[in-house]
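Dear support,

I submitted the protein below through the web form. The confirmation email said the job was done, but the results page showed an empty box. After a refresh the structure appeared. I'm attaching both so you can tell me whether what I see now is the final result or a partial one.
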Amino acid sequence: MKVKGSLREQWFSNIRGDVLAGIVVSLALIPEAIAFSIIAGVDPMVGLYASFCIAVIIAFVGGRPGMTSAATGAMALLMVPLVKEHGVEYLFAATILTGVIQVIFGVLKVAKVMRFIPRAVMIGFVNALAILIFMAQVPHFVGISMMTYAFVAITLLIVYVVPRFFKTIPAPLLAIVVLTVVAIFMNVDLRTVGDLGTIQRTLPSFFLPDVPLNFETLGIIFPFALALAIVGLLESLLTATIVDDMTGTESDKNREARGQGIANFITGFFGGMAGCAMIGQSVINVKSGGRGRLSTLVAGVFLMFLIIVLGDLVVQIPMPVLVGIMIMVSVGTFDWSSFTYIKKAPKADAVVMLATVFIVVATHDLSIGVIAGVILSALFFVAKVSKINVKQQTESGKIVYRVKGPLFFASVNHFVDSFNYDIRNKEILIDFGSTQIWDDSGVGAIDKVIIRLMNNQNKVSMIGLNAESERLIERLAIHKDPLAKISTH
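What the results page shows now:
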């Protein structure tokens, strides 16, 4: 089932579930937005404003209903050098340019490249993200206090046990409300959201980044904007695919690319940093019952409501409670069938999956891990399909070489080495009936073989060429020896 439908279906078919799920997501967005701001080296409000703006805008223009987009860690890491060397105003300018580039990618239908990402890389991406989500929680509860451990454990108990008996209110929301009240009234000594940074109770306002409008500025921000655009789209499109699988629906990936661009473009004018889809919050949304665009809109709007109206209460939310919810997300995100996959899948696929996980976890950069996984998978594929077999036979006094397998850059060496160049004064047929010539390297190898054979006064002919291979040879073949004339049959 494709996610198109009417506006009513996408916005109002699941009002109660979307509203409650959006509230849960908004509460989970606050500590992460602040943390990502700290990573990027900017004021906490930059991340909060970004999360508000991006979530609200993407609710209208995104291609994946129910997916949450906001400030993210992968994007924040890329911003560090820019902020450190040039300041936050250049970050806002880069965010605007990031949006422009993403819109262009969307118009060019860049989402088509998703089909080149193998399943092994997808599994590795998901597992690495689950591990990173868990690792990000470790500093907030390990080695702090026994009460912190207790609140994390109680939170996990609530989110896993309560849904079996009570589903009216999402368990994560119930855990946040109940345990925050308990912590406040019992005056429990716990770290809170307020410990991460100062929250200003003001709405974002429109302004132009204070940077010179010249080519020097463009030269500074373009490399960062391009990197942000690529990483943002990669993470967003992969997350959209994951949500597709979770909900049993399909999404418009090219619209999502354009939507991410529009959201980032506008966000830059309101003091926010570039962002993209968040797998953790998207999983929370889906597991809490969110399915439509309304859930994403509520997440953004309620986030700002929390900051402006309930700011004094929000800063008192215990971090162990949010940690417990994110641990639930990491456990739910991890593909536990991967252990079976490693045993049953081809070794090459298992290696690709594990390599993707290790690289992402080691670098904390999703794009590097995914690109490395795709390249590794491509190398394994090339190695697998590059096997070419050349058999020599004698038929009616003629020497026949039958070639089987694809002839391209990875198989040319074996192809060239398979011929006997000591043969003299013979009629030689090279049968390409069971092969396909794919590139210039293949044509060059044929040139080399035929020239060497004809230098020994052999008469050489090629037979069995399909139309495409014959056209490629006619277009690309180069024969330095005037006697090296290829005949095709």
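Response: this is the final, complete result; the empty box was a page-load delay. The first helix runs from residue 7 to 12.
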